[in-house]
Amino acid sequence: MIYVDRNTVERPISLSDEVFEDAQRQLLSNLAKDESILKQKRVKGFRVLYNSKEVKEALRSLFHGKCSYCEQPLTDKLYLTVDHFRPKQLATDSIAGLRHLYYSWLINEWENLLPSCPECNSAKFNYFPLKRYANFQESVEGCRKVEKDAILDPCFDRKISAHLKFLRDGTVKAKSERGEKTIELLSLNRKNLVRLRKKRWESVMSQLQTALKWEDNVRTLARFAKLMDQKQPFVAVSRTAGMTLLVPLVTKIGTMDTISDLMKHIWEGDIVPASIQELTSLMGLEKAMEPELISQNQVIPPKIRLISSVELTDYKALEDLKISFPSHTGQDSAPCLMLLGENATGKSTILEAITLCLLRENHGKALKLDPQSLLPFGRPTAKPRVSIHFNPKDGTDHWEFGVSSRKAYWKERDSHEIPVIAFGAHRFVTNIRRYRQRHIQVQTLFDPSKGIPDLRKWLVNAPAYKFNAVARAMKDLLLIPLDQDTVMTRNKDEGTIGFELFGQTLDLSYLSEGYKTIITLSLNVMRVLLEYNTNLEHAHGVVLIDEIETHLHPRWKMQIVSGLRKAMPMVQFVFTTHDPLCLKGMRNDEVVVLQRNEDSKIESLKDLPPIEGLRVEQILTSPYFGLFSALDPEVEINMIRYANLAASTNTSDNDQQLKEFRDQIESEMVIGRNPLEEIGYKAALRTIEDKRTRIADLSNINDDVFKEALDILNKKPEDL
Question: What is the pTM of this model?
């Protein structure tokens, strides 16, 4: 990290024109509402201007195509993401006042935007720990005056080297509390960065040592200057390496004046030594200031650990199966999975395996499962094993669960605990007093006779910050319009919960069974997550739901996945379903199709088409469900008979049968999704009759169908 003067690039027009001013007025108007509304409001619906091509190009130019934090070159693979130095929401886990809205008012502020690689952006997330926060809606300048212990800002902190020390082994050490916080929050000592910085140090040292041997001093200085230039990758490393060779450089050249500009680069414009003696003294001082880690009272929140893959070996019917989660690409929600497949292809088994592997040993044993029930049929000596791999690869790379010598085991654990909640396909609400026990949170997946706790009483009596966190999430889940200043209310005396919407209070107890099912399931998830977090926007965990479509109306089936993901964006959901409607809300590469091969071994289907944008009937007839068509089976058989009869010899008997088939087909099915498609289908049927076309030759009659369709369009309704 180095200091870069933001004034070297002009402020993008899109962040200063009338559109920007209008967006700011709208944003500040939203933030000026009553506190009861703001406490239950998420940062959504605001006009986003910071992500435009113009802004990205300005940021790229400002930092010469590098990440502002780690100085890696930004490429097509390591692409530029726009980072908010002060996050656009939830900059703190504090439950005080309106802290969950910090710093939404700076969402489009140029002074608050930096170019970042996805790795730094993901590591930093929304964390911005401080001992003291500025006032609500304070300007960037005002924030800087108050927030003295913030992480280093590469466009404000001119003396980065006073806080960070880059070493020859590629690591970076802290020289101050702010430096330590910056390193930890951005994960600046992640393995790939350390490797790249070490390689850069070695390359720079080799080039500089070679340059010192050249007779031409101008050429030597030019090489030093080039390697110290801020356009270079990892220039902070280059400058630190170059600093170790300044004494021999000055000795070679013989004068300090000649290298004054170079010295300003290395000392970042602060102190430029005037003589070799002063330089030697400063170098000695620099050596004496070898950095030590400085402890701080404020704890950096743990990094979110995402599941990257699951491997199952000899676990029940799953002989050897690996399922990969798509990589997290900095989107607004964590990668999830939807498992598809016919019955007996292991979907529920996979959910059970993931759940057991994520549970702590004492919680897993509390389920009182028979380890022998996990063995594959007919193989009593098998050793079932489930391995879960994580990303990022800090701490323990993977966790393992298995059965050996007829006993279950859990191993390769660290202190990091991941909340896990699981639901079986048979879900009903019941009153359970001991719902806080960890195994209760997953037991319906293993025992269909167990119910889901009714947590309305818990919500009525929950602390205010938990109640407001649930309210913010419920608005996304229940698809309440963003422009509605809806407030969730509770009456502790009567034990009721409701929403104030359109001037009326809607009691949740009067909602339909479908709504109640969704709310009850979601409350069980939210209660657990709020044991580990102060909000649901940052809360991470793994939630597994078997047959997500159970008890849901088709409209809810289409919205449930996206609703859950919006309500709890950093939760990794793993669903199973038999309903194509529930694939709405899943992204490409997030759907896994399980099937049995010729040897009856369960495997996942490869090379699936993109799921986003497919219509329901397209999903049904795609490899995701593998149906030949979405028609009623009897109608489909009649269609085939009709086409085959049309291709046979033209006789009066055939003509009569064709007419009967056509009348039957048109009476049994709704042809087309709209009037135009209906005309197209009718034209195709008539052309098949007239041309005596076989199914195999249907692709050759497009022109005839088109003419027939025109004829139908030109006829009067009574002639059709």
Answer: 0.73
